[in-house]
Amino acid sequence: MDVYGGNGTSRAVVVGGGIGGLTAALALVRRGWRVTVLERAAELKPVGAGIGLAPNAQRALDVVGLGDAVRALAAWQGEGGLRTPSGRWLSRTDPQAAAEAFGGPMVLLHRAILIDTLAAALPEGALRTGELAELADRGAVDRPAVVRTATGDIEADLVVGADGINSALRKALFPAHPGPAYAGFTTWRVVVPDPGRPFAPHETWGPGRIWGTQPLKDGRLYAYAAARIPRGGRAPDGELAELRRLFGAWHDPIPAVLDAAEGGPVLRNDVHWMAEALPAHHRGRVALIGDAAHAMAPTLGQGGNQAIEDAIVLAHHADPHGDLATGLAHYTAERLPRTMGIVRKAERTARINMLRNPVGIAVRNTLISAVSVLCPAFPLRSFADIATWQPPGRTYADQARKQDTPRQKETP
């Protein structure tokens, strides 16, 4: 048995090496924990394509000193907006106005870049891949938690469940909870080379379907799509063929993007959401973060962002030398209402933007067009409570800069 003790610091085990798990590991290291990350995959290959990091997640990453590195990856997107399948603009967006309203720009980047950035900041040896882990004991005030692996059991003062939407740790902590429910739609994601024609970034809403095309910093394009279809399906002739059936007749540049996707991977995933909230985001010495705690529809682009927030808030409350039980209670009290509020808002948004009824679509589109003319700031206000979030306390990045300044002055 691998037992905590030895270097005088408390030990944390993070189960899951995704965005939330790596951020949690890095934040806990900065807080003074000795951290081990257990990732079941043989290597870090993030599932997904692009991810949008809103200013709230960027501020969270400031806490671990990576906010500016992420902001440097922002691609200037120019004016974009919302369209119909014929190409008619329903509304226009101004990235500069959004950045001023929320305190920073939206940054769209490939998930692999973010994963690599987080992993590179961890201490050597903290990340262990090819390690399937299960919770043997959730622990209590008078005993450590125990995580079982093929190479032996690990005792830990804190276990972080960052093992995703099908979380085994969540099931172990709350076996009576039904888990995430099917949201009624499926998504596809691709990253393709620039098709060679200029276009305005856009999201397009059709009957029960969505398409979005956005540029990445390196010149490639990230495209995503969604459709209301039964869960568990797979296209017999391939997912690109399915996308052509669903979106091939929509406006430019969608057909060109589909052509550029030929021969490359097309990711397809059914969408699930936490229709019933967990009673808490912790139990014993185990805390859940990200999709393990509050899976949500992607319609607000906040899944990964909220996992990053979780990680930073958890580290803030998990004092390695203090009362962990109280700290975890504070973590749940702070995160459960916020994340479940966003979960429900994302589900309501999905119902609106994936309408199939022609009359409902006509009314919705008319209202969107009117609001974009009469009150263009309204969509920004509706997102402000999410994007203007601030991390608790001073950022570690600020503290590090203050500590570095005197040493720099003393250097001859």
Give a written overview of the molecule.
There is one protein chain. With about 400 residues, the chain is α/β, with parallel strands linked by helices. The protein is about 40% helix and about 25% strand. It has helices spanning about 20-30, 55-60, 65-70, 95-100, 110-120, 170-175, 240-245, 255-260, 290-295, 305-315, 325-355, 360-375, 380-385, 395-410, and strands at about 10-15, 35-40, 50-55, 80-85, 90-95, 105-110, 125-130, 135, 145-150, 150-155, 160, 180-190, 200-205, 210-215, 220-225, 265-275, 280-285, 285-290. A seven-stranded mixed β-sheet has the order 5-4-13-14-15-12-16, sandwiched between helices. Strands 7-2-1-11-18-17 form a six-stranded mixed β-sheet. Strands 8-9-10 form a three-stranded antiparallel β-sheet. A hairpin with a 2-residue loop joins strand 13 and strand 14. Helix 1 (about 20-30) packs parallel to helix 5 (about 110-120) and helix 2 packs parallel to helix 10. Residues about 1-10 and about 400-410 have low confidence and may be disordered.
Helicity, as a percent range: 25-40%
Q: What is the first-to-last residue Cα distance?
A: 49 Å
- How many strands, which pairing sense, and closed or not: the largest β-sheet? 7 strands, mixed
Work out the helix count: 14
Number of strands: 18
Classification by helices and strands: alpha/beta
Q: What form results from the Cα inertia axes?
A: globular
Radius of gyration, in Å, reads: 22 Å
Going across the biggest sheet, name each strand in turn.
5-4-13-14-15-12-16
Beta-strand content: 15-25%
Pick out the low-confidence regions.
Answer: 1-8, 400-412
Mean pLDDT, to the nearest integer, reads 90
